[in-house]
Amino acid sequence: MKHIPTILLGLIMAFLGTGLRAQNAQIAQIVQTPDEIVNKYIDAIGGKDKLGQIRTLHTEEEITIMNNPSPSVTDIINGKAYKNQVDFSGQQVITCYTDKAGWTVNPLAGQPTPAAVPAEQLKIGQMQFDIAGPLLDYAAKGNKLSLVGTESLGGSTVYKLKLTTADNTEMFFFIDTSTFYLSKLVMRLTAAGNPFELVVVSSNYKKTPFGYTMPFTREISYPGLTITTEVKKVAINDQIDPAIFEMPKS
């Protein structure tokens, strides 16, 4: 496997841890505002009340990079902390964000000891411990939202929503007009002064026993690299020790 820059791998790993087709045109005419679309999306994945009951989320995945499958574990304390750990043939790549700071370990890029993440990565990474995502209560989070329109994606019609965060990060959400699941997310980011797009395609949605519906398959890509992740196990509201999110001393 080729070396992957720490900041780019950290951003990608942060997104490891988001049917019916016949009535798309009719639904597109009925749902006309961004708020209506967001409300239907939230209802489709479990509803605001159910999402508010999620305290922790633990997932175990298999990720594939350049035809190399590797085990991955993600732990989230909702609104407070996120940690992903991938085992690349015995080399541990760790990405961690809390509401105060973030750190990574990436021996694939020559960083075998924990190091703080750059500021430009931190704010994006901290979105990952918001399990409901930036669309829920978007205005209260300082985000702005608009409906760009509809377009075809993979044989389906999707709504294209543009969300601009408080720090002016642009995100485009492509929501299926029939299922109201999130089909694709495009983020316009900058790493080391270079702009690029991070694209997350979500599929294989399943309803967990808790009642939270989530994608079990994601394809995460930016120019030159694509990562596929398959969720194998999900645990909601199990106890997670907050100490695992603390950056180890070098």
Which secondary structure elements does this structure contain, and how are they paired or packed?
Blueprint: H1 6-13, H2 24-30, H3 34-44, H4 48-52, E1 56-65, E2 68-77, E3 81-88, E4 91-98, E5 102-106, E6 111-116, H5 119-126, E7 144-153, E8 156-164, E9 170-176, E10 182-191, E11 194-207, E12 213-222, E13 225-236
Antiparallel strand pairs: 1-2, 1-13, 2-3, 3-4, 4-5, 5-6, 7-8, 8-9, 9-10, 10-11, 11-12, 12-13
Could you characterize what this model shows?
By secondary structure, the protein is an alpha+beta fold. The protein has one domain: Clam (outer membrane lipoprotein receptor (LolB), chain A). The chain contains 5 helices and 13 strands. A hairpin with a 2-residue loop joins strand 1 and strand 2. The chain is globular, with a radius of gyration of 18 Å. About 4% of the residues have low confidence.
